[in-house]
Amino acid sequence: MTSNNPPARANPAVVIVGGGFAGLQAAKALSGEPLDVILLDRNNYHLFQPLLYQVATAGLGPEDISYPLRAILRGYGNVAFRMADVCGVDLAGRRVLTDGGAISYDYLLLAVGAETSFFGLESVAANAVGLKNLADALTLRNHILRMFELASREQDPAIRRELLTFVVAGGGATGVESAGGLAELVHLVLAKDYPELDFAEVSLILLEGGDRLLLALPASLAAYAARALRKMRVEIRFRSRVAGFDSRTITLADGAAIAARTIVWAAGVKAAALIATLGVPADRLGRAIVAETLQLPGHPEVFVAGDAACREQDGGPLPMIAPVAVQQAILAAANIAALAAGRQPAALVYKDPGTLATIGRSTAVAAIGRWRFAGFTAWLLWLVIHLIRLVGFRNRFIVTINWAWDYFFYERAIRLILRI
Amino acid sequence: MTSNNPPARANPAVVIVGGGFAGLQAAKALSGEPLDVILLDRNNYHLFQPLLYQVATAGLGPEDISYPLRAILRGYGNVAFRMADVCGVDLAGRRVLTDGGAISYDYLLLAVGAETSFFGLESVAANAVGLKNLADALTLRNHILRMFELASREQDPAIRRELLTFVVAGGGATGVESAGGLAELVHLVLAKDYPELDFAEVSLILLEGGDRLLLALPASLAAYAARALRKMRVEIRFRSRVAGFDSRTITLADGAAIAARTIVWAAGVKAAALIATLGVPADRLGRAIVAETLQLPGHPEVFVAGDAACREQDGGPLPMIAPVAVQQAILAAANIAALAAGRQPAALVYKDPGTLATIGRSTAVAAIGRWRFAGFTAWLLWLVIHLIRLVGFRNRFIVTINWAWDYFFYERAIRLILRI
């Protein structure tokens, strides 16, 4: 492994690992500071994860929710990008170890995010598909559409039903949005594409281990979401957990079985594996436990922000969601700039901007402060917020067109089975 | 293998193999006829192949130039689609053999198209990438962008030059369009993305075996194209043929060598492999030699149209281009309908609508009848014709936006390295 560090610099070196919400926000916040910042990511693009389920359900293309990191960072003179797989951190030597050599830092921000957790269920890990990256979303899109093609030429009704049974595991926002997106794809679009199929043979099942959906939202909104999904012909089973999946039969923890070929796994995430290699205290989701300044205990030059950080507030850990990642990143960047300038770092005070989840056409739920919205207003709010947050004006424009198109024509233009 | 045929029907069964320009045109032409038509394709989408090089050079996404075949065929009551890999034809038993069972026909149209030909050069086949399908285009896009990422962290100038040398083999329309698209991606877009690279180290080389480009166009237009490419910093080498490529060194037929990691292979195509399995007379490109009615000699119920058919006119075989495919498909469909109605099939008279090739921004060449265009007029013509021919209003709309965007902002929004 060779060292790829540029020659001696005047400014302290900041390395940010991860170009997601947290890493990108921190890079932007550090632009213009007297610091030499390098942002590392294994991909060359920033991914707008909240819309991944729309790629999986053929509503958007992968290009619509991704934006090249180099293009985003063009304007920031002191921020460079390098595409690299980070395989470890030499905390004592202050070096990040990558597939392209080691990179030294004076300050490090780990914004490595989360990955799918199958809770050690190996058969599920082998046969279900998560929803954490573009490969997941395209694999799901290909798989779902392929099931319909196979069903359309299948003579055996039992096998046809198995092909046409789609299970979403997990009743959080990702599970609810995926189940809703899938229901619209199936009953509004594919029903027109497959006149040879009887769509009464299709089963869409949402499994939730607890006894309500959307724990992050008030119970009344969760009940609204459940009613809306049922209207869209999604069967919801509470107190149901997946225990195994051999690609044709799903076994539940209570011993029941479902003949199905598809599990969309929205039941669990954990911090990216890099955190476990650091040898620092972590919570049960693998998140590094950080100080209120987001510093790693014993390593004041190392910060962790976003899904990979565990920080408690108001008696519980902050959730693994974009607003937490963004607020933590802004604080971590400010604290790095403060340390470099010889000032004291500040403590995190997370301000909850509210929670939103969309279910389908004109149907969403939102809790913002004391306000509760359900239906069209919440959906419009969801739409506008997601469009504003998307990086790149072109992406916003194309996504608006795609959504308008699908809304008015009951279409999903992107339903291609793409082999690569 | 089981038979998947529906129960006895009143109408003759027509099977069309291939959903490209020829197959899709024939399916549309047969709609409304007293025939039961099944269109088979290994993919679930129609691909607009003329714009594949734009996917490879990050100007368009794969979703923009593809359209679901089932969506296209929705309006045609007597035309069904089935996604299937066709592995053979039982000409005597009048059955098409697929991965989903055999399908019987009364009339068969083989519109199976073409695939990349490496002329038996195994090392080139293993390391170069053709441009015949979406997987090719995405592989190329990923590869080209990855070379820049690797170069940006490479210290050895010799290796850096090797990473930054891109060779396009073949000076026909695909080669010229790919070289032009690549030059614009590199010098207009990536030059802004990689401030750490010296773009004088980039080499773009177009290799042509003969001594001029664009044989399908008049010499004056070919010379214009060569001048335009050189202005875009593409080096053109005539009388140069690739003999081998071990992924780091390209060996030419005259013994010269080029240190490079990339060959975009636009030097040859041949008929799809299915034709060779039929045991019928074929030309040196593997195309089935057909009668003037496009019937297979000895099998009047079997037609071949498009790139997989060899039909001579005016002393030479018709070229493997979209206008030939479309005109042949219209005739083949009319002849199938005629035979089914007890009438005589008609003979093909191909009318050349002219030839167009684009080189880059505001730069194209066109020969239509006695007219010759070069520059902005030809480019506008190319733009309008390609937009009109794209299937799906949404695709036309999105492609227009992408092109306008790239034109005004010197951008390529889709430059993502996408792993799946």
Automatic annotation (TrEMBL), chains A, B:
- State the Pfam families in the record: NDH2_C (PF22366), Pyr_redox_2 (PF07992)
* Family to which this protein belongs: Belongs to the NADH dehydrogenase family.
EC number(s): the record gives 1.6.5.9
Q: Which reaction does it catalyse?
A: a quinone + NADH + H(+) = a quinol + NAD(+)
Top class in the EC scheme: oxidoreductase
Which InterPro entries does this UniProt record tie to the protein? FAD/NAD-bd_sf, FAD/NAD-binding_dom, NDH-2, NDH2-like_C
Q: Which UniProt keywords apply?
A: FAD, Flavoprotein, Membrane, NAD, Oxidoreductase, Transit peptide, Transmembrane, Transmembrane helix
Task: Give the organism, scientific name.
Answer: Anaeroselena agilis
What sections of the protein cross the membrane?
Answer: 371-391
Q: Where is the External alternative NADH-ubiquinone oxidoreductase-like C-terminal domain?
A: 354-409
Its protein name is NADH:ubiquinone reductase (non-electrogenic)
GO MF entries: oxidoreductase activity
Note whether Transmembrane occurs among the keywords: yes
Domain FAD/NAD(P)-binding intervals? 13-329
